[in-house]
Amino acid sequence: MDRPETMRVLIANRGEIAVRVARTCRRLGLPTVAIHTDLDADAPHVRACDEVGRVSSYLDVDEVVREARRHGCWAVHPGYGFLSERAPFARALAEAGITLIGPSAEVMDAMGRKDRARDIALAAGVPVVPSYALDDDPATFSYPVLVKAAAGGGGKGMRVVRSAAELPDAREAAAREAASSFGDDTLLIEKYVESGRHIEVQVFGDPHGTVRHLFERDCSTQRRHQKVLEEAPAPTITDEQRAAITSSAVALAEQCGYTGAGTVEFLLDNATGEFYFLEMNTRLQVEHPVTEEVVRIRGERVDLVELQLRVAAGEPLGFTQDEVTLDGHAIEARVYAEDSFHGFLPQAGRTSIVRWPESGELSASASELTGHRVERSSTPGIRVDHALEPEQDVSTAYDPMLGKVIAWGADREAARAALVGALDETAILGITTNTGFLRALADSPEFRGATIDTAWLDRHEVAAPDADLARVFGAWTEVLLDTMGEPGPWRADGWRMGADPAPDTVVLGEDLVVVDRHRGTVTHDGASHDVRLVSAADHTVHLLVDGVAEHAVLNVQRDLVDVVHRGQRWAWERPDPFGDHAAATGDGTLLAPMPGTVLAVHVAEGQAVAEGETMGVMEAMKMELALRAPFAGTVTIVGAAVGDLVRLGAVLFTVEADDD
């Protein structure tokens, strides 16, 4: 690109996408400017850029534009989320003479809203999902239906409704979530496809009227419309379906005069084979790495951020559709700060140890850029995009995504197996993440057979990993650390001088584990394992357990044993026998299950409630949680008001049971 010294780029985002954009800019010789809030003053994305500007919020249009002007920026890259699809932001930049690396405000207005996008799709001859008007009689609907926000995306403001009786509450909740996420509570009501696949097409348009597609991705593995695993190409569609879907995406982009990177999303009905246009995301997608891993242009890998920058600078795409080909298969797993096996509750806290799949040697520019691993791993076919470090605070103020693990293989099974292996090597301690859930899901027969549809995770549970092996690692390592420096028969081991050491008893939470290092056994609840130590260094322990090689990452502290095995975290307290023991909270007390914001309070002290009645609603990391009465009774305590920021474990409501 010409004159890079004058083409400074402000990155209006945070986290892994800001680091990822900065990496490409650095390779192209474009200086970068990071913005940050006070909470993010020392975040990785700040250190990844050449210059820095402070804002009070990533959503403050005036402040972001001010920083772009103050630093003399040629362009702003919005990443995804935040202001990336806000037309007022695009207009403000245009008025300031600054280029948005994305489509125009007019295109955002048209395609950023699902209702207007439907009209454009119809004009382009693209099939759309059958819908109902908001003022139609709900009794006439063919259920189930989907209530969804007309603005925005990402699964926010969506509710599946299966009867007319459920519709009022669903509309209220969807509108509230839409207003909170997008500042617009307009809703649509559409037919809900019970079994479908989510197929999306990566399109690119240049300022000269050329539109190309870069094939499709399958994002069917999702929970409550939030994507979990994404892959490219789509594993279940026919060549005829691929041709029809990709050509429809190009026709839609041409119809609206699209420029830059965009994604056209479709729903493929498994029952009929028909596909419907859902929406268009006028930005780069979270899952764009799987496209980068499999798409080749004239045989070369593609960098979608580089394409965005070149198009924004006025360059033509410069390739024909026939020059775009596919090579292999790629799958991406989104790593979130959430407890997937306990209601998917968002997590917050401070990391202690962070281990991503081992990376190879970084280029000098990438090393200077980040100070941590973001490039392709030394493990063949593994890529990690993240912005999470040891001793880093993770709050509920922002989206819970911490990073992405991407695997490439010559075919889908090779990519899937590589992803499972990479998730085995991912260890985040200090906070709970969904890595163990991702590993179990990617290793499931359903994902292996590509039979998961968009609602599968809402109908099925992924079995939680057993804690048995993690418990073996925790107990064995605690004994190993306790006995280091006291070798042989002279250590205190039950006063058996000169004899074999007595077994050690380890308490992990409520579990009693017996470790006999002399005989090489670990016993818990009557079950015994043969254990042999292979190696232990840098918080990583390798054991042979019943003849099988296993490894775990551990952080053993005075009061806590923190273990990650096969991606899943277990944390056991080490009880202090001389410590105080607080009384357990009664069954009628509802505690905040996560730190967050109280959105609604529906009851008052002295009010009678029925079992299961919603008493309030709270939100953390863009997820709503209804707080329901555990039984019929009378509300005796209302511990929070609408708008309150509450900590984990705060008393929100107390219900006194009816006498009967």
Largest sheet: 8 strands, antiparallel
Structural class: alpha+beta
Uncertain residue ranges: 360-378, 485-499, 577-585
Q: Strand order within the widest sheet?
A: 14-13-10-11-12-18-25-23
Alpha-carbon distance between the two ends: 77 Å
Q: Hey, roughly how much beta strand do the residues contain? A: 25-35%
Shape: globular
The tally of helices reads 16
Secondary structure: number of strands = 42
Fraction of helical residues: 10-25%
Rg, rounded, reads 27 Å
User: Mean pLDDT across all residues, rounded?
Assistant: 89
Report a brief summary of the structure.
With 660 residues, the chain is of the alpha+beta class.
What would you note in describing this structure?
The protein is of the alpha+beta class and 660 residues long. Helix content is 23%, strand content 32%. The protein is built from 16 helices and 42 strands. The strands form 10 sheets. The chain has an 8-stranded antiparallel β-sheet, sandwiched between helices. The chain has an 8-stranded antiparallel β-sheet with strand order 27-28-29-30-31-32-33-34. It has a 5-stranded parallel β-sheet with strand order 3-2-1-4-5, with helices on both faces. α2 links the parallel β2 and β3. The protein starts with 8 loop residues before the first strand and ends with a strand. The model is unreliable at 360-378, 485-499 and 577-585 (pLDDT under 50).
List the helices and strands and how they pair.
Layout: E1 9-11, H1 15-28, E2 32-36, H2 44-47, E3 51-54, H3 61-70, E4 75-77, H4 87-95, E5 99-100, H5 105-111, H6 114-123, E6 131-132, E7 145-149, E8 158-161, H7 167-182, E9 187-191, E10 196-205, E11 211-223, E12 226-232, H8 239-255, E13 260-269, E14 275-281, H9 288-294, E15 295-297, E16 300-301, H10 304-312, E17 324-326, E18 329-336, E19 338-339, E20 345-346, E21 349-350, E22 354-355, H11 364-370, E23 382-386, E24 393-394, E25 401-409, H12 412-424, E26 427-428, H13 435-442, H14 445-448, H15 456-459, H16 468-483, E27 504-508, E28 511-516, E29 521-524, E30 527-537, E31 540-545, E32 548-556, E33 560-565, E34 568-573, E35 589-591, E36 596-601, E37 608-609, E38 614-620, E39 623-628, E40 633-638, E41 645-646, E42 651-657
Parallel strand pairs: 1-2, 1-4, 2-3, 4-5
Antiparallel strand pairs: 6-9, 7-8, 7-9, 10-11, 10-13, 11-12, 12-18, 13-14, 15-16, 15-17, 18-25, 19-20, 21-24, 22-26, 23-25, 27-28, 28-29, 29-30, 30-31, 31-32, 32-33, 33-34, 35-42, 36-38, 36-41, 37-40, 38-39, 40-42
